[in-house]
Amino acid sequence: MKEKIAVIADSATCTGFRLAGAEYTFSLSGKEAEEKLAQLLSDQDFGIIIVTERLLESCDWRLKKRIEATAKPIVVPIPDAQGPIEQSESLSILIKRALGLDLSKKRD
After folding, report:
1. Of residues 19, 10, 6, 28, the one with CA closest to residue 81
2. Angle, vertex CA 57, rays to CA 76 and CA 3, nearest 5
3. What is the pTM of this model?
4. Which domain holds residue 54?
């Protein structure tokens, strides 16, 4: 079974992902974006959910805790047009949390 990728972001970012072939893009903000994110977290068909950092930052703390506790789907924050937020997690940290191993460490 092929897992789906969803994008929740501003209009420009969604357009870019649609041009790259992403099928499930949602140009939402505020409460609508939070509700869609919560809905996608419950959908086992999705393996990756891409959201803008600012959207994720504005989410309710309960939803953030749910995201942290969930290994699948993995939620990947990306910078928006305004640029990256300093305190965001790196992709390697997200992968380590999802898979339980550090891909950046060299094997002996």
Report:
1. 10
2. 25
3. 0.73
4. 4-99
| Bond preceding residue 73 cis, omega within 30 of 0 | yes
Confirm whether 107 is domain-assigned. Answer: no
108 belongs to a structural domain: no
Residue 12 located in a structural domain: yes
pLDDT digits (tens, 9 = 90+) for 60-108: 888 888 888 887 888 888 887 666 666 545 556 666 666 565 655 555 5
DSSP 85-107: -TTPPPHHHHHHHHHSS-TTSPP
Burial class (CB in 10 A: 0-12, 13-18, 19+), 97: middle
Domain with residue 80: its CATH number is 3.40.50.10580
Q: Residue 90 is which amino acid?
A: S
